[in-house]
């Protein structure tokens, strides 16, 4: 059957003007290569390192904003296409939020964990991210917490949050410091 491939970005969230991002494509196979597309046009051919390939953008500008996806090929045959990851490059105007997790970042399996993203702005909403996922884990409106019930090993990872306001245009914050959730 066709291989399953995935695409993700590091760091998660909106990228600051002048910032850096890495787009990661991965596949269970390791004898082909990836073609990276932006808005439907081929950008680059990526060689595999093991089962992964990475494309880095540094000194990001508005021109780097777009819809990116990967095609996995063996020879001239496209065997699989990834989902699309939307990369957004913006100037950051809001203060950096603080992500906290209760009861702590090291918890026993089966526990409930509460994520809280705090920002010094009266009307900001925030996205909670888990590194490796294309979409945000959760949108949090002002003063809303996100509870992850009955955590398990699959919930482990690097979490962060990023906030924005909807005025005439969107204004963004930087991404919070990353919290590592460990499930024992």
From TrEMBL:
A biological process term (GO) from this entry: immune response-regulating signaling pathway
Gene3D superfamilies: Immunoglobulins (2.60.40.10)
SUPFAM superfamilies xrefs: Immunoglobulin
Keyword set, alphabetical order: Disulfide bond, Glycoprotein, Immunoglobulin domain, Repeat, Signal
Domain Ig-like: from-to ranges: 3-86
Cited InterPro entries: Ig-like_dom, Ig-like_dom_sf, Ig-like_fold, Ig-like_Receptors_ImmuneReg, Ig_sub, Immunoglobulin_dom
Protein name, UniProt field: IGSF1 protein
Organism: Smutsornis africanus (Double-banded courser)
């Amino acid at each position: 059957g066709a291989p399953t491939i995935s695409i993700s970005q590091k760091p998660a969230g909106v990228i600051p003007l002048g910032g850096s991002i890495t787009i990661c494509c991965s596949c269970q196979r390791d004898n082909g290569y990836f073609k990276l597309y932006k808005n439907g046009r081929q950008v680059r051919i990526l060689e595999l390192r093991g089962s992964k390939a990475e494309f880095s953008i540094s000194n990001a500008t508005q021109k780097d904003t777009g819809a990116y996806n990967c095609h996995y090929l063996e020879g001239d045959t496209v065997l699989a296409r990834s989902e699309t990851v939307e990369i957004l490059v913006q100037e950051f105007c809001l203060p950096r939020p603080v992500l906290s997790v209760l009861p702590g970042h090291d918890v026993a399996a089966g526990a409930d964990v509460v994520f809280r993203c705090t920002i010094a702005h009266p009307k900001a909403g925030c996205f909670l991210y888990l590194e490796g996922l294309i979409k945000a884990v959760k949108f949090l409106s002002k003063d809303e917490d996100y509870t992850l019930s009955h955590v398990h090993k699959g919930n482990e990872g690097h979490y962060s949050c990023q906030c924005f306001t909807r005025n005439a245009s969107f204004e963004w914050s930087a991404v919070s410091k990353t919290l590592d959730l460990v499930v024992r």
